[in-house]
Amino acid sequence: MRIGIYGGSFNPIHIGHEEIARLVVRELNLDKLFIIPVGIPSHREDEYKNSLTRLKLCRIVFEEDEKIEVSDIEIKRNRTSYTYDTLLEFMEIYGKENEFFEIIGEDSLENFKTWKNYKEILNLSKLVVLKRKNYNKNVFDEKHKNIIFLENPYFDFSSTEIRRRLKNGEDISKLVNPKIKNILLKEGL
Description:
Distance between the termini: 37 Å
Largest sheet: 6 strands, parallel
Oligomer: single chain
Strand content: 15-25%
Shape: globular
Helix content: 25-40%
Mean pLDDT: 88
Structural class: alpha/beta
Number of helices: 8
Number of strands: 8
Order of helices and strands: EHEEHEHEHEHHEEHH
């Protein structure tokens, strides 16, 4: 099986996340892609107190996608999340004989060498790098057979921008799935 692992804050999930997930499934011919909202992040302050809400929103977005599943594996841990630990857990659950793909953006590639056991991640899985505006693949000075650069559309906004717009009462219609917009507005998130 070809298994993708796409972790992130998804705070909130937006149409860029949706399009990237579907693109990755299609381009890499994945049998399954797991969307993994981070529990307690290792690389920034814990501003993700609303873990269960982020998980719920992700599940709503992908509820009809057979090949995409949202996992609470990191949220359930209740400790700092590391990609390496999540990868090992997935290998234990699904079997090491499967092919694993870690999905990240060029912004994450920039500091990938600081990640826990980054060399092991590269040995155990393929690292799929997606383009991000104002970054480029030259930020990582190592060549490795398991790093794949995937062509993808750029999105000119982020979850941070969506949170700012929500706070200021601005429109987010073109940035999030309509179901998500309604929940964000209704629940005052």
